[in-house]
Amino acid sequence: MTSPIFAFFDPTYILVIIGLLLSMAASGYVNSTFAKYDRYRAQSGVTGTSAAEYILQQSGITDVTVHPIAGNLTDNYNGGNKTLNLSEATANASSVAAIGVAAHECGHAVQDAKNYLPMRLRTAIVPIANLGSTLSFPLILIGVVMSMNATLIHLGIFLFSFALLFQLVTLPVEFNASHRALQILSDGGLLTPAEVPMVRKVLTAAALTYVAAALATFLQLLRLIILFGGNRDDN
């Protein structure tokens, strides 16, 4: 006889837990790495904002403006309104880490200017990925309530798969932006040869957060397939 303690235990939860642990580990690693190299003041003395403005100018990008925003490591490039937004930890700091993060976001601006295909693809996927993330679990829940309606359940799983597709397309976009950043910093004189490897470590740590997010989403999708993928509507 099954113990009441395990009556409602779903062993597939282990997949969710693994994904959560991966995301937490990646987040902790990027924060600690940034904090480590945020203590190294760049010999050039430029701030993240100044570095970003310099890189944009050198790249021939004149329609992007740099703005400070609240938060820590909330830096982002918005192609919709052509703004490069730098967090408080980056905008006014002159550390090696801050300049590296600013250069990474400039990498996205360069991608946008050059019509980098994976970025265009990611932008195109965003609406349906958001729709899938919003509707997938309600559809699956309704399908379960409606006597395991396979059509609704499978539609929910299909929509959730677009969230994974978005994560996968994001990987080359982020890695390429970091590659561009390192190339720009190596060629532009903003950092010394000894400082560039420090930036590489910061950007590698940041990239791991996207890898962890993709793995966590994959594990969540795998769990849904294990639980409901073989379900058939007998009605």
From TrEMBL:
Transmembrane segments: 12-31, 124-146, 152-173, 207-229
Record InterPro entries: Zn_peptidase_2 (IPR007395)
Pfam family, one: Zn_peptidase_2
Domain of life: Bacteria
Name the record gives this protein: Zinc-dependent proteinase
Statement: the UniProt record of this protein carries the keyword Flavoprotein: no
Residue stretches in coiled coil: none
Record flagged with keyword Transmembrane helix: yes
Taxonomic lineage: Bacteria, Bacillati, Bacillota, Bacilli, Lactobacillales
UniProt KW keywords: Membrane, Transmembrane, Transmembrane helix
